[in-house]
Design a protein that fits this description.
The structure holds two protein chains of two kinds. Chain A is mostly helical. In chain A, 74% of the residues lie in helices and 1% in strands. Chain A has one domain. Chain A is built from 22 helices and two strands. The longest helix of chain A has 41 residues. By secondary structure, chain B is mostly helical. Helices cover 71% and strands 3% of the residues of chain B. The chains are: A mainly alpha, B mainly alpha. At the A-B interface, helix 8, helix 9, helix 18, helix 19 and helix 20 of A face helix 1, strand 1, strand 2, helix 2 and helix 3 of B. Chain A: Keywords: Membrane, Transmembrane, Transmembrane helix. Chain A: InterPro entries: DUF112_TM.
Chain lengths: 510, 150
């Protein structure tokens, strides 16, 4: 524990240099803006800005990108409360009650409780990260190729069982991601796969065109479908004060939402959106006034906002300690590490101590900056919502194209980005989840190489996956994560059948 | 949404077929470890099975919630934007990437979104300066230059 605190102190030394402070500030401001823009989420913003990070040192780049990730959680609140459009998916529950509160003249209270809740939950989650990451990374040093294969597989299968929506669609989209990752030269034997004679495809499809296309371009195209010339509800600085009654009502909601969000953030595939929804539902169950939920419940807003921010921070633990991203945003962050020439995994904490501890310290600083941006400066940020989205969309698209070009200096990459942009747009329309595609693209190579290494070690025997207790547990978790959606589907069908059978009886009894 | 699910399943079934057919000649096993054909085969098989499951589920489903397709104006905006984006790739080697990007932004703001002239010109100028400043001046990226040398 003392070691962790000493390392954190060292991390503050790294994060507090003028250049890093500037980029933390830029990152959280961009996150705040990206979160507030309807239709552009933090993962998309991070993917779009990834090419810019080539020009800055790795630690600075990661601090800035992480700032966008958690800054987006704060920013999404503004649009949800003042316009009734979730700025990003994790603010969907905030839009339900936050806008009702704004209509009742309590926009300031909703924004205030969101900022304070997000700040407290964020700081608590980073504190937990300080103490959980080092022992987990140390434990993970004993991992061998079978454990890595199973961990990567769990990262993909858990997306289906924990994430919202159809599990079949989620796994199918992960398979689509694996297909994308198969394109190029086989990592061990060097054979060309799925290149169709195109020389540019021999190097494989990079993560960046997929992420920029599927998140960035697709989201802008979807946003352009309709006009967002909205008139946000006005709020003043003096409306931001919370009464003692409001605070008493919300403090337990913040604690509950923050704790729940942190644990959900740890799980692969869940992420801030699931955390916010679950925290809102849980708070409604525990609330003394459940009837207020849906009509302007301040504690509902507090729980959802605390949960999404702590989940965003919690998701960094498996990414930093194991090198396994659990969400789309952490997948982009992991890709940023790889692009900077850093090998993610349990050794990251030892080999890149400055980067990891600097990042952790930067999150304390970033959360303080965001609290200031969202309390006294919230009305100023709210006025930015008056700029029509249509003026921003062309700029975002041009940055996407130029960013894609900058990665390889080839127009072929720009074409690939556009192709994935169109695919991503159609996926949105067909209600197909996009996060599993990106997660699979990131994890595919680790999966394939560690599977091969495992089977080489065991001379082709699959028993290597159950020989060590740890790999056996991971295998059970993978199987469990696949069976969970099947079980819940069967239970749901049985309940539906029972309801159908009972209905005629009750009519007959009448 | 039922139609969208059926179409998604068919597309994934075709993709799985393509993966299987184009990689079937690669070695499945090499010495004691999976060969180049191992992963594609399993990915194609899993994709095929899941696509069939999605297809059967969609065909058997009684309810059909409406898909969130845009209205006519929405379609016009999306299609014109997509066409404009592809035109950037075609025109960039001829006119230069930055010049094409400027034309694309003005096309999007004035023709597709029907925004006012002066704010559109101002937005385009600010974005161009930002993109040029970050990517060219700071990161030193050499953009494709066209016939006019920009």
């Amino acid at each position: 524990m003392i070691d962790a605190l000493v390392s954190l102190g060292h991390g503050f030394g790294v994060a507090l240099t003028p250049m890093n402070l500037l980029f933390i500030f830029i990152g959280v401001c961009l996150g705040q803006l990206i979160g507030a823009l309807p239709g552009l989420g933090p993962s998309a913003g991070m993917a779009l800005l990834l090419p810019i990070t080539f020009g800055i040192p790795p630690a600075t780049a990661i601090m800035m990108l992480a700032g966008i990730m958690y800054g987006g959680m704060y920013g999404g609140t503004l649009t949800s409360v003042l316009v009734n459009v979730p700025g990003e998916a994790a603010s969907v529950m905030t839009a339900v009650d936050g806008h009702k509160l704004a209509k009742q003249g309590r926009a300031g209270a909703a924004l205030s409780v969101s900022a304070i809740g997000s700040f407290l939950a964020g700081v608590a989650a980073v504190t937990a990260l300080v103490f959980v990451t080092p022992p987990l990374a140390e434990f993970a040093l004993s991992f061998s190729s079978p454990e890595y294969f199973l961990l990567a597989a769990l990262g993909i299968t858990a997306t289906a069982s924990i994430g919202a929506g159809s599990p079949i669609k989620a796994i199918l989209m992960a398979v689509f991601g694996l297909m994308i990752a198969l394109v190029g030269t086989d990592p061990i034997l060097g054979s060309a796969r799925l290149t169709f004679g195109i020389t540019e495809l021999l190097d494989g499809i990079d993560f960046l065109p997929v992420a920029i296309g599927i998140f960035g371009i697709a989201e802008v195209l979807a946003s352009l479908e309709r006009s967002y010339d909205s008139e946000p509800i006005k709020t003043r600085l003096r409306d931001m004060w919370l009464s003692a009654k409001d605070w008493t009502e919300c403090r337990i909601a913040i604690l509950r939402g923050g704790t729940l969000g942190f644990f959900i953030g740890l799980m692969p595939g869940a992420g801030p959106t699931v955390a916010a929804i679950l925290a809102y539902v849980t708070e409604k169950r525990f609330s003394r006034h459940p009837e207020r939920f849906g009509n302007g419940a301040l504690d509902g807003v507090a729980a959802a906002e605390s949960a999404n921010n702590s989940a965003a921070h919690g998701a960094l633990i498996p990414m930093l300690a194991l090198g396994i991203p659990g969400s789309a945003s952490t997948a982009v962050l992991l890709a940023a590490l790889v692009l900077q020439g850093i090998r993610p995994g349990p050794t990251l904490l030892v080999e890149q101590a400055d980067l990891v501890w600097g990042l952790i310290a930067s999150m304390f600083i970033g959360n303080i900056i965001l609290l200031i941006l969202n309390l006294p400066l919230a009305p100023a940020f709210a006025s930015l919502l008056r700029i029509p989205y249509e003026y921003l969309a062309p700029g975002i698209l041009v940055i996407s194209l130029v960013g894609a070009y900058a990665t390889t200096l080839s127009l072929f990459s720009v074409g690939l980005t556009l192709f994935f942009g169109m695919v991503g747009y159609l996926m949105m329309k067909a209600d197909l989840p996009r996060a599993p595609v990106v997660l699979a693209v990131v994890l595919a190579q680790l999966m394939e190489t560690s599977l091969r290494q495992s089977l080489m070690l065991s001379e082709g025997s699959l028993s290597i996956f159950v020989q060590r207790p740890l790999s056996a547990i991971l295998l059970l978790l993978v199987i469990g994560s696949l069976l969970l959606p099947v079980m819940s589907m069967l239970t749901r069908r049985r309940a539906e059948r029972r309801m159908r059978d009972e209905t005629p009886i009750s009519i007959a009894t009448k | 949404m039922k139609t969208a699910d059926i179409l998604s399943a068919v597309v994934m079934l075709v993709l799985s077929g393509v993966v299987f057919l184009t990689t079937r000649d690669l070695p499945y096993w090499a010495d004691f470890a999976p060969g180049s054909g191992f992963a594609p085969l399993w990915v194609a098989m899993t994709g095929g099975v899941l696509a069939i499951a999605l297809l059967v589920g969609a065909l058997r489903r009684q309810d059909n919630p409406p898909a969130d397709w845009p209205d006519r104006t929405g379609w016009r905006r999306v299609l014109l934007t997509a066409a404009g984006l592809w035109a950037v790739i075609v025109l960039a080697p001829i006119l230069g990437l930055m010049s094409t990007a400027v034309i694309f932004m003005l096309f999007l703001l004035l023709a597709v979104e029907r925004r006012r002239l002066w704010p559109s010109l101002f937005t385009t100028a600010v974005t161009t300066a930002l993109v040029y400043g970050v990517f060219s001046a700071w990161l030193g990226i050499a953009f494709p230059k066209g016939v006019i040398g920009i």
